[in-house]
């Protein structure tokens, strides 16, 4: 089998990208989650965790030796230089993890699912991008229901993510997820059959399905 080509799958919070990714996986597609990779690179015993502890001090490490994400977020939230330091450390390591895991694909194409596909530059690892796009009021409603968080917190997260216009500008395919789960799964299956017959040599060089 020839090497799998890579589909980037993204969308804002509450868009349904995780549900779409799960259905692609159920169809036999190799799916790699960037959020999982971000956690792998800071596991105990990994060099990144030691570097973070040396830079920020022991307060960002739990008693069990794991990264205290809440403590780290509090330290970098309003300090752009510290956030850039962390990104400079982690982004190449996350990229290496993603490349290694995508290379294990046995399916004709593989999926890199990432909420920050555009912002992080991870889209450069892909040959095509699928955006799960959802009206903002539905994103807010779904996230409040799912996570039990206040609406203003969801709006703050939306502002911190790439804008809808930015995502649309990068997308080759757009799945508007404004109906129920069964409809979303039907659309995923439709796209899956299209993708099985694609062999894009570079991102965006195919017609949209």
Automatic annotation (TrEMBL):
The record, for CDD domains, names: DPCK (cd02022)
GO cellular component terms, alphabetically, are: cytoplasm
List the GO biological process terms. coenzyme A biosynthetic process
Its localization reads: Cytoplasm
- Pfam families xrefs: CoaE
Q: What class of enzyme is it?
A: transferase
Q: What does the record give as EC number?
A: 2.7.1.24
Keyword Cytoplasm attached? yes
Q: Which positions does UniProt annotate for ATP binding?
A: 14-19
Reactions catalysed, as given in the entry: 3'-dephospho-CoA + ATP = ADP + CoA + H(+)
What domain of life does the UniProt record list for this protein's source? Bacteria
Pathway(s) of this molecule: Cofactor biosynthesis; coenzyme A biosynthesis; CoA from (R)-pantothenate: step 5/5
User: Where is it chiefly localized?
Assistant: cytoplasm
GO MF assignments: ATP binding; dephospho-CoA kinase activity
NCBIfam families, per the entry: dephospho-CoA kinase
Q: Which HAMAP family match?
A: Dephospho_CoA_kinase
> What name does this protein carry?
Dephospho-CoA kinase
What organism does the UniProt record list as the source? Answer: Pseudomonas mangiferae
Q: Which gene encodes it?
A: coaE
